[in-house]
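Async update (no meeting this week)

Hi team, since we skipped the sync, here's where things stand on the single-chain job. The sequence we agreed to prioritize is pasted below, unchanged from the tracker. I ran it this morning and attached the output directly underneath so nobody has to dig for it. Comments welcome in thread, and please keep replies under the output.
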Amino acid sequence: MSAPISNWTVLKGLPLMELYAASRAMADGPLTLAAATLLRERITPGDRVLVLSGFLMRGYDLPETDGPIGAAVLARALALGFGAVPVGISEDSVVKCMKTCFATAGLIPAGVEDLDSGRNRCALLGFPVDPAEAQDAASALLDRFKPTAVIAVERPGAGSDGEYHGGGGFRISSFTAKTDVLFAEARARGIATIGIGDLGNELGMGNVAEIVRANVPLGDVIAAELKSDVAVIANISNWGAYGVAACIAAMSGNPAAFHDRAQEIRLIEACVRAGAIDPVGGQLRNFVDGTDAETNAAMVELLQSLVLLSQREAANINKYQDSWIK
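Output:
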């Protein structure tokens, strides 16, 4: 998931593998596996998990395609694999896009009061832009849902100056929901936190902030400050979420918890129809971070094959490992 093949990563010359290596050292193992393991340890069926996403494009009031799709795929895996009840969180203006993605992934949007009325339910809620309102909203959400995990997928994270920044160093605080407040309060309460990002200005990427400041263009301005229990570094944030979702599907023994190639293409198409923009191309097109739908689908197909292989070959792998000690 960290293969530097998108034009954003290559053209910007991002030190993706340095960021990955640093975060992996902190997690003491592969990042997607570490994140999935943490979630398996914390989640029991019926638990609420908050999934934060949506990165609004300056001047458009529309989100990137990177983020909502990955959030939906991961929410699906949490529901089908671990029996969790995902609650998507974003700006009010992004809730429609998030809802479209979650539904296209196969989940069933419901009102908060109806989350336990059937299988594979989810809820989508807006979060305040105003900092004072955000503090009250964060406490209310955590008190109400009592989530066992909070996950940020391509979600803006505030820098050392307290401001949110786009990749170009410009401020986006005036229209960005203050989800840092929610993430920080979750950490203070001992709730598991996972951040998934691809540049370093995303929520939960504080684990690698020093490397971002030193090596990423404009890193001294954009580096996000808040840390997470596991910071998943990926070439495209959606891909990081896919990696975690694939691990969940394998761990749970339910390959259906991970989506397939055809569904990936449907997700990208639905996300764009809901108004999401490819930020690299600056267009309403079926791309994510400058990478076309077919390339994204190929990555999903590869992951799906690994999930299936892990189930089909589990017995042979165990026997092979046992043969080492005989």
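Quick observations from my side:
The first helix runs from residue 7 to 12.
The first strand starts at residue 48 and ends at 53.
Reply here if anything looks off.
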